[in-house]
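Assess this one:

_____
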Amino acid sequence: MATTITVYTLYGEQTALSWENFFNVEQISFRSRALNWKVSPHVHETLLQLLFIERGSVDLLLNYSHFTSQAPCLILVPAQTVHCLAYTPDSGGLTVTVSQKPLESVIKLLAPPCDKAAGNTLYVFSGSDAGGTLGGAGGF
């Protein structure tokens, strides 16, 4: 059975990307609270997201991998990565959304060794360890 994954600029918005919105920072609660803290599977064609979870926890499904992370944690979701999120209602922090290609260009100019780490790799930094915890069905 084929599943259709919605493509968004910012979650819930299908407007064209422009220089005015190639970089966006917002509180996690800005979109998640109205969605009962569950963000359905979706993908951003050209945008990467950096999720800084300051409190609470989040269950993530990234492509076909499931992670559960507790605050404080930092999660990188590269462009073209299907993802969905289920936050606990006490979650707080920031979602930073940025065009991946311009960011990669800046990295190449300012920090060439970092370019190797900027590929389509998921990094989950959580508390005192450097990895997410693979889990079961979680909040999905």
Residues 45 and 92 are 26 Å apart (CA to CA). DSSP finds three helices and eleven strands in the chain. Confidence is low (pLDDT under 50) at residues 120-140. Helices lie at 29-32, 100-110, 112-115.
